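Why DNA-binding LacI/PurR family transcriptional regulator? Reviewers of the renewal asked for a concrete example.
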Amino acid sequence: MTSPPRPRNATMRDIAERLGVSIKTVSNVVNDRPNVGPRTRERVQEAIRELNYRPQVGAQQMRTGTSGLITLAIPSLAGTYFSELAQAFADEAQRRRRSIMLHSTAAGREEEHSVLAGFTRVLGDGVVFNPLQIGEDLLTDLGRTIQPTVFIGEHVEEAGLPAGSDYVRTDNRRAAHDATAHLLRQGRRRLAYLGALESTEAQQEHSTSRLRLGGFHQALEGFEEARSTVQAVRTWSLDGGLAAVRTLLEEHPEVDGIVCGNDDLARGALLGLHAAGIEVPGRVAVIGHDDILEAPFTTPPLSTIDPDKRTLAATALDLLLERIDGYDWPPRVVDTPYGLVERGSTAPLR
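Here is what the prediction returned.
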């Protein structure tokens, strides 16, 4: 049997003919332009709903030069932080009457290269890009991004930013320093950093792993009585934290405070400590990083660093929209705030 033809999508012409108005009038309503009377606007909006009209992005881009779409290229949607960050971008974009198109670069270095090369085809009006594996030399050699681009995260050297781009970041070294200093103020003196990675990504000078580890070591300077160890992990995940804390407890049972690279690792550490019968925070304090939605609901509630994902998203989008609108001055670098959130997992040592 031959399949029935797919129903044709409604067009602006269909709406115009139905109401006896011009296509220009319908276009003005669709694009929220002011030169339409309130009664006519209401009639057009009602017809749009009844006919289930959806503007076609390609046609809009040809007509106006913009699509209303922004690509958010992030390493993965599997990690809790990145999924929450994507939601923050979607919410902020909606406030600006834009839509976010997600692109995962989990396939690795070549996929990140394709983002810088403008993909196979240009997607949307601009890109917010969180690189992990591209080398800083590539950015320096790039000269100029194909599309307006805002970099977020780390792995970017400020001096090597290509033209047509900006950079929004949180001071991860200082944040990890503050997390470690918090445990020191609580009387902890046998500290471990749980989160060192062995991957190529981690070897880069500006990787998240290295920056946060650097902040950990920096906070310990001057505390001669403090002792520290670094525990490697396979991945920054709940499973990675659980496996790593088991090894840590076997090799360093004296540890009384653990600074974790992110909250997923910290959640895994809490599970491992509980399974070993170790009281948190009575014997061991634990602090994470990212302030994910689950952090207040762990047992005990997890102290953490809040990187203010919404401010990061809002700042990055504002800079990108300025680029899309024609701003073409040298790259800008903006540091967004973070905060230390104290919860039950880091009470003072008794």
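Residues 189 and 223 are 9 Å apart (CA to CA). This is the kind of structural detail the renewal will allow us to pursue systematically.
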